[in-house]
Amino acid sequence: MAISMNKTIMKAAVCGLALSLSAGAFTTMDAAPVGSGMVDLTYAAEKALPAVVHIKYVQNSKVTTVEVEDPFSDFFSDPFGFFGTPNNGEKQRRKVQTPKREASGSGVIISSDGYIVTNNHVVEGADELTVTLNDNREFSARIIGTDKTSDLALIKIDGKNLPFLPVGDSEKLKVGEWVIAVGNPFNLNSTVTAGIVSAKARSLYANGVESFIQTDAAINQGNSGGALVNTQGELVGINAMLYSQTGSYSGYGFAIPTTIMNKVVADLKQYGTVQRAVLSIVGKDVHNHIDSEKSKGKEVDLGTIDGVYIDKVEEGGAGADAGLEAGDVIIAMDGKKVSKMAELQEFLANKRPGDKVKVTYLHNKSKKEKTVTLKNSKGNTEVMKTADLDILGANFKAVTEDQKKQLGISYGLEITKVNKGKLQEEGLTKGFIIQKVNDEPVKTLDDLQKAVKEASTSKDPVLYIQGIYPTGKKKYFAVPLD
To answer: pTM of the prediction?
Structure first.
């Protein structure tokens, strides 16, 4: 499975389904030099191969209803339906059978009891996940948690004394250092490629939070979720993307550093969702801002050519509390130099709401420092947990064919029982049929569960519910989840 994102000239393609990761501590050893200037990577490969797994993704065939345009609606008008084309023939509903989808990728075992890290795009939408180890043992996997913002996911298989890869510190990686990429490209199991770290803190504008390790170790479709390993046999990144004109490898691959991964994994285990700390600013790399202004014929002197230029500061956020204003430049966090937005994102990715940090910035070229308490996306420091259907306090079932015909609908979830909970508080009653939540169709319990989870961790934790009563009367409700 591959995902592509168009750039100016090049194409960034997600490397297909792939899993790889590991954690723990064990004795490390330096790579042995071979000959003049050569590096022996066999030690790293021997440590990584048993812990990198192949993941098979299955999305089962489903029956769904879609709206289609009448091809003759632009040429023929029949407002009274004399010719059997109601609603002027503009839209028709049809049931379609979606095909069964299968794909494969990679993953990394990070603990002996079967926790595996991979990319979110490897497991998103899967009905079945099958994990195959390097020794051909097979396990069914379940999803512990996913984080679309960083494109990471944590899954688990039931096993004991499983091989796992120790997690290294990606912060210590140096440009020019040798690394290997381990995964299952093109369904070729247990493939190892080698290269160097060619850059750090890269932004591709593919994820909400990113600070990629760039490497020239070959990464292809199927490597997604696989391991980027240093010469000591430690996991330093999760392979995520390739950058190419064709969608196949042509020189550069990108991995999510363990500095970001560690925090995501810990939060998914403890809270079920990532506790993300934000400054609540909108900004860009200083050099990008300078280049943009120069293209307009303007000269810019910010007092620095490195840092994060602030375009906007959101009211009530941590940035506003720090005294930041549009036009300021962040140059350091907790005394550590910040040269670009990717470095600021990587720093914040390791923090939780409530953490105190020191922000160093330039205001009208004058250096200032302020200690501020970071907040979550809701503007407070509370722990954010994903809500479950239980919060609604109701039972549901899919509408029957008779109900569809009687009410002229094609899908929906009927409320069959209302207990104490959010729905009762807002006046929803038994018999009401939910059709849309936050403008998304609700056809199954999974659809409703997804809507509840996403809304519960958003800045606006409200379910905007649209539906219909058995009498045919349509109704709209706003259900706060706080």
So the answer is: 0.72
